[in-house]
Amino acid sequence: MASPKKKLQGLVAATITPMTENGEINFSVIGQYVDYLVKEQGVKNIFVNGTTGEGLSLSVSERRRVAEEWVTKGKDKLDQVVIHVGALSLKESQELAQHAAEIGADGIAVIAPFFLKPWSKDVLINFLKEVAAAAPALPFYYYHIPALTGVKIRAEELLDGIQDKIPTFQGLKFSDTDLLDFGQCVDQNRQQQFAFLFGVDEQLLSALVMGATGAVGSFVSRDLSILWSN
Where are the domains of the chain? Predict the structure, then answer.
């Protein structure tokens, strides 16, 4: 039930959150943003409220409204809308996960909590498991970005046996420059058919050689979509 109708792969736009001059969210342009991505860039998958979207700088209510607007405006236009629901508070993250399921999002992603940091793989997985359980019908993705979280648990270590703990786990957004870690993630999990989404635009070509199945970034274009056209 947690498997998407179509595997999340290819280009995934990490959307910005449009603001007015007064610092309020400009919801009125999100519909135009959807049309631009689809018609001008050929991109139909998006990653909302992540780093590019400054999700952790928004209030919970703002994050909810942004997610709602992207899902609503993307209906029948976008293939998949993945909502980042990570937060320092477990309860807030669970609330956002449940909300994403209620509004019809196609998946959720979570970063590691980064103030009181998890000190081991087991502690981190327990946090992720609790969030995933709040939206048991949605595919779950781990957002690995150690440069910003300061959590140095290797993604390769985290993925070992992760579906035994988180049955809805479907893949990884890998936003780190450690290509050795990324390559080991791919090599050691080929049988699981996970989505390996690379998040460092400058190293994308190297990641493709190593087996990336997609890319989540702020630089997306029709020219790059040819990499997954087949």
Answer: 10-228
173 is catalytic: yes
> Are 94 and 59 a contacting pair, CB within 8 Å?
no
Q: Calculate the CA dihedral of residues 148, 150, 153, 158 and round it to 10 degrees.
A: -40
Q: 202: Cβ–Cβ under 8 A, 6 or more apart, which residues?
A: none
- Find the catalytic residue in 33, 141, 142, 143: 143
What is 10-228's CATH superfamily?
Aldolase class I (3.20.20.70)
Compute mean pLDDT per 10 residues along the chain, 230 residues long, and list them. 67 94 94 94 94 95 98 96 97 98 98 94 97 97 96 95 95 96 94 93 92 85 48
Query: Which member of 33, 44, 142, 173 is catalytic?
Result: 173
142 is catalytic: no
CA atoms within 13 A on the CB side of 102: 10
Q: How far is CA 171 from the centre of its chain?
A: 9
**The whole model's pTM is what?**
0.92
